[in-house]
Every structure is written in C-alpha cells, then in structure tokens.
Amino acid sequence: MADPAELSARLVAELTEAGDLVPQWRAAFQAVPRHRFVPDTVWVQDGDRRLVPVDRADDEARWLELCYANDFVVTQVDDGVPAEPGRVGRDISSSASRPDVVASMLAALEVEPGMNVLEIGTGTGWNAALLAERLGDDKVVSVEVDPAVADRARRVLWDAGYEIAVAATDGALGCPSFAPFDRVIATVAADQVPHAWAEQSRPGGRVLVPWTTDFHNGALVSFTVEPDRTMRGRIVGNVAFMRLRAQRGRHVSLARDVRHVEQARCSSTGLHPYDVLGEYDVSLAVGLKVPRCKLIVRHDDGGAYAVWLVDPWSGSWASLEHGPGAETFPVRQHGPRSLWHEVEAAYHWWEDLDRPTADRWGLTVTAEGQHVWLDDPGNLIGPSCPDQGGQ
Ligand SMILES: C[S@@+](CC[C@H](N)C(=O)[O-])C[C@H]1O[C@@H](n2cnc3c(N)ncnc32)[C@H](O)[C@@H]1O
Q1: pLDDT-wise least confident of 87-96, 128-137, 144-153, 198-207
Q2: Mean of the per-residue pLDDT values for the chain?
Q3: Can you give the three-state secondary structure of 105-152, one letter per residue?
Q4: GO biological process annotations for this chain's record (predicted)?
Q5: Do 209 and 304 have their domain in common?
Q6: Is the CB of 157 under 6 A from ligand 1?
Q7: How many angstroms is it from 94 CA to the middle of ligand 1?
Q8: What is the pLDDT of residue 383?
C-alpha cells in the first residue's frame, strides 16, 4: 500500500506544477496530511452515477488514493440521514473540496500574517487546518451548519494539533462573537450572498464567495468591503460548490417534475445546445438572465444526449434532444414558462452585449440586497421576468 507521505508529496508536486499551489501556501500543504481529515467512509459514483460508500476498513489502499487524488471526496450524503428502504439516489451534503480549488482559493484570499479569517463550511476541517498552519490557530474561526460534521471536524482538528474555534451554526449569519475579520472565505456556494459577512469584516477586507445561479454553478467572486460595508467584487474564477443549506431550493427530479409530456408544445431550434451549455462564459450569462431554471443533461450510450430545463416552482419544463451530427434539435416545452425560448433569448442578449467573458461581471451586495453589473458597478443588469405567456 502506498505511503501517505509519498501520496501527499505527489499531490503537492502536481498542484505546484499546474500553478495552482503558490509558494506562500506550499509549506502548509506539505504540513497538513489530508487523509487525517477524511472520514473512514467516503462516497464514490458507480457506473450508473449512483453514490456508493467506500470504507477504509474494507479497502484502505483505495481510500488513501481517494484522499490524495486531485478531486473532491464526498464525505456525507443526504445530510447524514440514512436512506429509506428502496431509495437509490443520494445527494452530496458534505465533502473535502478539490485540492486545486482549495489551493487557488487560498491564493485568491491574499492573506498576510496577523490577519483574522472566518471560514464558512468547515466540512472535514482540512481547509481550516491549512489556514491555521499559515496564520496560527487563534486567527482562524470556522462555521459549519451540520452539528455532527462540526463535532467531527473539531475533534479531528484537535487530534491533529489545531486548536481552532469551530461553531456549529448557520454560516449565513457569520460568527459575530469573533468579528471583525480581515478575510472571509466561503467553501460553500451562495446565490444570495449574506451581507453579514461584510458587516463582520474590517473595511478594506476581502470576502471570497463561490456564487451560483440555478442554471450555472461556478463563479468565484472576490469582494472588497467598503467603509459603509457595501461589498463589491468581480468574478475571478470558475469553481462549483454545494449550496448553503438554506439556499438549496427545490430538488429537481425528472420523474416527478416533467409532467403532461403529451401536451408539450413542440418546435425545433438551430442553436446547438453545446454553444449555450458547454461554454462557460455563455452559461454563466444565461444563468444571470434566466432565474429559477435548473439544468439536467442525460447522455445515452450512443453519443446522443437530452437537455432538460426545469422550473419546479412554476411547473414548467423544456427538453432538447441532441443526436450525433444533427444540425437542428427538437424542442418540447410545457407549463407557463417557455424555458428553452428564455434560454435562447438570453444567449442572443449575451451576443448583443459583445459576448462578455466571466471576468467582466461583478456583484454588489448591501444590506438591502444584491445587484449584478457588467464592467462597471453602475451598469446594473437585472434578471428577466419569467415569461408568463406560454407558446
Ligand atoms: C464543500 S464542503 C466544505 C469543505 C471544507 N472546507 C473542507 O476543507 O473539507 C461544504 C460544507 O458547507 C457546509 N454548509 C452548508 N451550508 C452551510 C451553512 N449555511 N453554514 C455553514 N456551513 C454550511 C456543509 O455542511 C459542508 O460541510
């Protein structure tokens, strides 16, 4: 079986070579053994993309490889609630984040010695330990909403020699008793960014947040906190995280939410689904313009795939079929919204804006709410109103 120290050295070398691990964080990555933070039972996808457990006691070599792969490790499903008999699908509810994402986010946090940091989403405690290794135990506070996950992280951190405060509470509220902070890092995604993180920051502080829409998960925003606690920031990276628990919204199930297929409105489109869904800059922009639209893609063995757009709140859905080599694609839509038409309109809106790249978008968050802007904080962009007409 491979030696954890060798696996760790291999991972550090890989991250360094890829440019994800900057010199300032290398010693911390070398000092904190990731496998000490990963629970004995983790979850992997089987051939049918179902999450199944891998136990250290059954296959320690595989478990160790998972701990030191440059990938996220699923450490809890379904909020830790055992599955009811017959339930097959499980949902990820806690994980150890991908090492390259952790390294890039820590670099983007731009910490200096002496700074106080608040982490939202303790999970395994690995990221908190990395922060403590660089800044000192008394400079790091971490908040985890799941009491069992928080308890475990506290114990593991303690056993590994890190006396870090871990609060079991809703991270959207921050951690006022330890404020003010110079840096806040969320390792969990928000679609509505909590203003408490700015209220508990020092002016000039930085707040780093994976920001998500229903359509597109994957925008890291680096905010600066202004003296009046307004926070403004731009998209600086592409990272996908699970959402804050209270912002998870509705779970979409095609079996439950796609109804009345025989009554669907049928049409076709010449817009290739890859041009909209496969391109990061486009899919990000579509997510800004088309709210409450969840995206599911289903591949079959022959290279064909179907794109499903579902708004479980209004009961609207759309599907688009893609066959290999096809140039037009059949579309079906049902419900008060015509979701594919909204997505197509958002694509043309993005084209008309001169195809902005992700780094041109920014976000302003105040106590009153949040606004998206393009290039300049004065150039606000609102989401479109869901189409109520139907077609
Ligand atoms: C991707 S994991 C965090 C990874 C972690 N930083 C690590 O090093 O392993 C996200 C964590 O955020 C937690 N979480 C979800 N909603 C939260 C909330 N409202 N407040 C605090 N933590 C939350 C989840 O329970 C989960 O453990």
Answers
A1: 87-96
A2: 94
A3: HHHHHCCCCCCCEEEECCCCCHHHHHHHHHHCHHHEEEEECCHHHHHH
A4: methylation
A5: no
A6: no
A7: 6
A8: 60
Q: How far apart are CA 211 and CA 370, in angstroms?
A: 12
Q: What angle do CA 116, 121, 127 make, to 5 degrees?
A: 65
Task: Judge if the beta carbon of residue 167 lies within 6 A of ligand 1.
Answer: no
Hey, what are 179's tokens? 């404020």
**Residue with CA nearest ligand 1 atom 26:** 94
Q: How far apart are the first and last CA of the chain?
A: 61
If you measure from the C-alpha of residue 299 to the centroid of ligand 1, how many angstroms do you get, rounded to a whole number?
30
> Tell me: the pLDDT tens digits for 9-30?
999 999 999 999 999 999 999 9
Q: Which atom of ligand 1 is nearest to the CA of 171?
A: 20
- pLDDT tens figures, 139-195: 999 999 999 999 999 999 999 999 999 999 999 999 999 999 999 999 999 999 999
List the domain range (segments joined by +) for residue 112: 4-237
pLDDT in tens, 209-249: 999 999 998 899 999 999 999 999 999 999 999 999 999 98
The CA distance from 337 to 291, in Å, is 11
Residue 389 lies in a domain: no
SS3 273: helix
The atom number, within ligand 1, closest to the CA of 245 reads 16
Nearest CA to ligand 1 atom 11: 121
CATH number at residue 288: 3.30.160.690
d(CA 296, CA 273): 12
**129 C-alpha to ligand 1 centroid (Å):** 15
Distance CA(148)–CA(154), nearest Å, equals 10
The pLDDT assigned to 157 comes to 98
247 in a structural domain = no
What's the pTM value of the predicted model, to 2 decimals?
Answer: 0.94
Residue found under tokens 């859905």: 317
Residues 251, 91 contacting (CB under 8 angstroms): yes
Phi/psi at 75 (nearest 5 deg)? -115, -10
